[in-house]
Amino acid sequence: MILAWIGAVFIGLALGLLGSGGSILTVPVLVYLVGEPDKLAVAESLAIVGIIALVGSLPYALRALVDWKSVVVFGIPGVVGTYAGAWLSQFVSGGVQLGLFAVVMLLAAFIMARPKGLHVPRRSGAIWKTGLEGMAVGAIAGLVGVGGGFLIVPALVLLGGLPMHLAVGTSLLVIALNSAGGFYKYLHLLPALGLTVHWDLVLLFSALGIGGSFLGGRIGVRIPQDVLRRGFAGFLVLMGLYIFWQSLPKLL
């Protein structure tokens, strides 16, 4: 369990250092370090990610760094998508979910490795496009148990027309909303599988993750973001390939 606790702190550190991406480590930590079943890990990941994101959004909200219109336009369709993704999870095996999760990790690594992928002129996107993007990201989040910040931030910048400093704070609230929608559905699905959420684990991981995120925020100002993102992207590639390899027998 000591390794699991270290993993929980690392989740928060990554979130504080990078502004996104930390939540994608939650499922691997729960599966490989704690030993949780695949589907239960996905559900608990949504709860942990949601709590950390909600707490992390408070400083941004207090400094008026949240675009509430985007929270509604992107977040409400996202909740619908996350609920739908959680509903779809009952029709696929845990191995398939982990396989999809590995693909999402590799996509996240690609996005994070791009040196200037988000430095684009501000422009306004159509509301319906933003809403569809929010629903798609939510569906991914609900199915594989990620917060989706690495997808939400680019979407808010490119489609929502937000500057980066607003996109980060807004994305945290959207992540919290998405996670709540997906977790609510999993609460109704898990009993049929004979699984129960371990609330003590969820609260402990959330607390360690929140502490790690504040620590990461302090350290992150001293390290170039490009170096952090590329290093983390390399780590995600290795982890994604490992998870895919581990889930390959179940997929076959």
UniProtKB/TrEMBL annotation:
Matches recorded under Pfam families: TauE
CC terms in the record's Gene Ontology section: plasma membrane
Protein's cellular compartments: Cell membrane; Membrane
Highest taxon in the source lineage: Bacteria
TM segment ranges: 6-34, 41-62, 68-88, 95-114, 134-159, 166-184, 196-215, 227-245
Protein family (similarity comment): Belongs to the 4-toluene sulfonate uptake permease (TSUP) (TC 2.A.102) family.
Protein name, UniProt field: Probable membrane transporter protein
